[in-house]
Amino acid sequence: MENPYFPYPVRIDSAVIETEDRNLKTFKLVFVNPEDEKKFAYRPGQFAELSVTGKGEIPIGIASSPTEPGFLMFTVNKVGVVSTALHNMQEGDIMGVRGPLGNWYPWEILEQGKNVVIIGGGFAFTTLRSSIVYMLDPKNREKFGDIHVIYGARSPGMLLYRDELMEWEKRDDIHMHITVDGTDDPDWKYNVGFVPTITEQKAPKADADTYAIVCGPPVMIKFTQPVLDKLGYAHDHIIMSLENRMKCGIGMCGRCNIGMEYVCKDGPVFTLEQLNRTPREY
Amino acid sequence: MRFLKIAKDDWTRGVEDLKKSFRVFGPVKEKEAYDFRLLDKGVLPDFSFQNTRLSPKSTVYPQSEILFEYTLDESKADHHVHKVPEKDYSPRVILGIRPCDAKAFELVRLNFDTPEYKDPYWLSAYEATTKVGLACDDPCSTCFCTSAGSGPYDEAGLDVLLADRDDHFLAKVLTEKGEAFVSAAGWNTEAPDAEAGFEKLAAEAEGKVPGGVPTDKLADKETVALHGADFWEDVAFSCINCGTCTYLCPTCWCFDIQDEVKGAEGVRMRNWDSCMFPLFTLHGSGHNPRATKVDRVRQRFMHKLKYFVDRYGRGIQCVGCGRCVSSCPVNIDIRRVARLMNEFEPAPEKCPA
Asked: What CATH homologous superfamily does A8-101 map to?
């Protein structure tokens, strides 16, 4: 019997501070046993339990893309016991990864030439990064229609993956709309304004072939949803990824449910239409 | 399936013989309450109980269990790598489990044995366990098994069902595991005429169980409307979130996972947890999706009486053992809540003015 609680041992390959508040760090992890990488076949939108031996586990979205073999990438906000311990770990240290867990963005549908509008805020950009890298891969790009990305943070220094954002800005096969709440940088050449406002200005009008993927803090989601309604997005075309406190990650420990659905196993990805039918306990 | 007659003096000998090939669990009286314990040599299960204070779930699913061991000592080659400790999954038997509690294992199995994932700890222990039921001829006033898809002679989840007939037991052997059990005990007096008697006893016992807990309309309710019903404040008003209900419940399975370290040696533990506690759902950010006791009380009842019903189509996540009713310090009664939920009708939408 496979033991679904067993974390694969991994080595920290790099740990880089991601944001100006120094609260977010990006970790690249390499499997200690190379054969474990094959067992860890994942799709963008899934998450994993990062296991710090002696401290515990935390559920974190996978920020790398399956088109980037050889490592896994996670960006971790420092909030509790495990994430703080993780922030204090060094390159070369051994930790664990358990997964991949949960479902993924609906690639089966999106890969049929659909237009994808990615709307992200703050540090909820990890599985969105995975998705963008995945869609832009030369083998995959032709499977999708137009790709729009609206991504905002408090300030330029709080944006994740800034080098990649700038690279994507230069491409003509993805429409980038980077924004910050405010900045005193006179050279800032992108948008200034909250994500819902920029969405209203930049997002394409809804149609049957256009799907929005929304990830961000509750306040961003609260004000973005009316904008998408106004643009005519049907609720089964609005895709969201939820977070809840988790332990097992496999639908057994009982805490992350919203109604009869477990966020860890039946999610974390739900359409807004599905969420409308569950109690909002997230 | 066959019937045996076990005389009480032969019972004593058989139980001792069983201990040679099984770890034998049974109810024993400690102070004023009965609980299941591993029976040492010479100790017989005490069947003079109505029901035990705690359910026997811990015989398969310990309140605290080590999932992994590891060392943090970097001079060792396998430092920080998780290893499953040695576990005893040799055959074990639960003597005198009530039919409601045996049925509860069937419901809990739905959680730990899924098409996608198997919990190896729970399943290995479950598969090692033979369940020998003791039919209920004297139900408690808080029992409602017959309303909850079980009954005093229910065979679900059992390998053998015993009926206590004063100077002997009638045994109905139900499974292969049950056959192995009676053979290990050396009980082999056939009682081919017992079937009719068994049925009569079952009918009599069922008549004594207080009924009238309706659950037939729960599946039809709209989840969001039921969640927003106006009775939850009232139901939760006296609750002190002590967690007794979930601790006693044979069908509550929720758990926590924690690391514990002493020196350089550590373990990853699994411990029973409870939806009654705020920490159960508290996010790292400080946000709590079930922040109030009303949210948490509602979660317990919605899980048992609605979410489970919808997810599995196997009735409610409750076997009617009545423990949460009799042990609740503030008299919250799942029978009343089931009635409220089953009879709930959302307020009609107001006409626009």
From this structure: Translation factors (2.40.30.10)
Domains A8-101 and A107-241 share a fold: no
Interface test mutation site (partner A, options B76, B268, B305, max chain A beta carbons within 10 A)? B268
* Tens-digit pLDDT string for chain B (353 aa): 899 999 999 999 999 999 999 999 999 999 999 999 999 999 999 999 999 999 999 999 999 999 999 999 999 998 999 999 999 999 999 999 999 999 999 999 999 999 999 999 999 999 999 999 999 999 999 999 999 999 999 999 999 999 999 899 999 999 999 999 999 999 999 998 888 888 999 999 999 999 889 999 999 999 999 999 999 999 999 999 999 999 999 999 999 999 999 999 999 999 999 999 999 999 998 999 999 999 999 999 999 999 999 999 999 999 999 999 999 999 999 999 999 999 999 887 766 65
Q: Which residues pair with B5 in a beta bridge?
A: B170
Residue carrying structure tokens 């109505």: B50
Considering only the beta carbons, identify the residue of B72, B224, B282 that sits closest to A277.
B224
d(CA B179, CA A262): 39
Q: What is the pTM assigned to this prediction?
A: 0.93
Domain range summary for chain A, segments of one domain joined by + = 8-101, 107-241
**Alpha helix (H) residue ranges in B134-285:** 176-185, 194-208, 223-227, 232-236, 244-248
In CATH, the number for domain A107-241 is 3.40.50.80
B-chain residues within 8 Å CB-CB of A245? 280-284
Nearest CA in chain B to A7: B82
Dihedral angle, C-alpha A254, B58, A5, B66, nearest 10 °: 130
Predicted-complex ipTM score: 0.92
